[in-house]
Specification:
44% of the residues are buried. The protein is an alpha/beta fold. The strands form two sheets. Strands 2-1-3-5-6-4 form a six-stranded mixed beta sheet, sandwiched between helices. Strands 9-8-7-10-11-12 form a six-stranded parallel beta sheet, sandwiched between helices. It folds into two domains: 131 residues, Rossmann fold, CATH 3.40.50; 134 residues, NAD(P)-binding Rossmann-like Domain (Rossmann fold, 3-Layer(aba) Sandwich). It is built from ten helices and twelve strands. The longest helix is centred in the last third of the chain and has 16 residues. Bound molecules: 2'-monophosphoadenosine-5'-diphosphate (ATR).
Length: 272
């Protein structure tokens, strides 16, 4: 049976084994998918062991995405631009290919919830690793403009600069930010620390849709705040998680699983 796994530390909370097992069943693929938790300094060894044991591909999550990038012998364009790898694949030629499916997962879920993104004005909160992986896929949807806002403005500027050849993208501080946005995406880790990004309430208008890249059984802190300010719709990142998994599965198996049903089951399990 073909072997797949997810590497991360911690990993016990990972939904990936559940998701990929359902994908395999749905598409009638014979594979096993497990979770591996290397020590913080043990990723390279654990990965080498995985390939020796016949591993065909894996997902990689925090804190190993940059190390996975280093471990890859070849990279897709989207992995090069993201500077991080969440998907490794052993190709038929025996080469370790590094890919990044996070942005594709986000875009798929945005479209599923909000419709086509073409000509929309999008605000991205945060300029860390999570933001970097999604900028190019968003610009590829021909949005009218992407504004990146970050507490540390220099990081937003650097990100906007890096992607300026792919579309209209600019940066701002939270204080200077104004105007109207169709979609606001929260990629900051503020919520994980029980905080909110310092976004002015007036930026949430009656037509604004908000997407929080994190998820929780209850509504996330950012989405709860956005609803209080009158947002038209809020969605959390569970669908992005399933979307990136579907994209990884497609990279490995050449067959695209449907993700609506898996997302429903996952949501049901979360709220138990
Ligand atoms: P990730 O890989 O998850 O994006 P990261 O690279 O550490 O993690 O980036 C975290 C992002 O959340 C950054 O944009 C960070 O802002 P800074 O670059 O200014 O540090 C943002 N962030 C974290 N806590 C925040 C808070 N309380 N308010 C606003 N932004 C916050």
């Amino acid at each position: 049976m073909d072997l797949y796994a997810v590497f991360g530390n911690p990993i016990s909370q990972s939904k990936s084994p559940f998701i990929h097992t359902l994908f395999a069943r749905q598409t009638q693929q014979q594979l096993s998918y497990t979770a591996i938790e290397p020590a913080e300094d043990g990723f390279a060894d654990a990965l080498a062991k995985f390939w020796q044991e016949g591993g065909k591909g894996c997902n990689v999550t925090a804190p190993f995405k940059e190390q996975a990038f280093q471990a890859a012998q070849q990279h897709t364009e989207r992995a090069l631009l993201a500077g991080a790898v969440n998907t490794l694949k052993l190709t038929d030629d025996g080469i370790i290919l590094g890919d990044n499916t996070d942005g594709a997962g986000l875009v798929a879920d945005l479209i599923a919830n909000f419709g086509e993104l073409k000509d929309l004005r999008v605000l991205l909160l945060g300029a860390g690793g999570a933001a970097r992986g999604v900028v190019r896929p968003l610009l590829d949807e021909q949005i009218s403009e992407l504004v990146i806002v970050n507490r540390t403005v220099a990081k937003a500027e650097a990100l906007a600069e890096r992607f300026s050849e792919f579309g209209k993208v600019s940066s701002s501080s939270f204080e200077d930010l104004s105007g109207q946005f169709d979609i606001i995406i929260n990629s900051t880790s503020a919520g994980l620390k029980g905080q909110l990004p310092p976004l002015k309430a007036e930026l949430i208008q009656a037509t604004t849709r908000c997407y929080d890249m994190t998820y929780s059984a209850d509504v996330t802190a950012f989405n709860a705040w956005a609803v209080e300010q009158g947002a038209a719709k809020v969605v959390d990142g569970l669908g992005m998680l399933v979307g990136q998994a579907a994209e990884s599965f497609t990279v490995w198996r050449g067959i695209r699983p449907g993700f609506r049903q898996v997302l429903r089951e996952l949501r049901r399990n979360l709220s138990r």
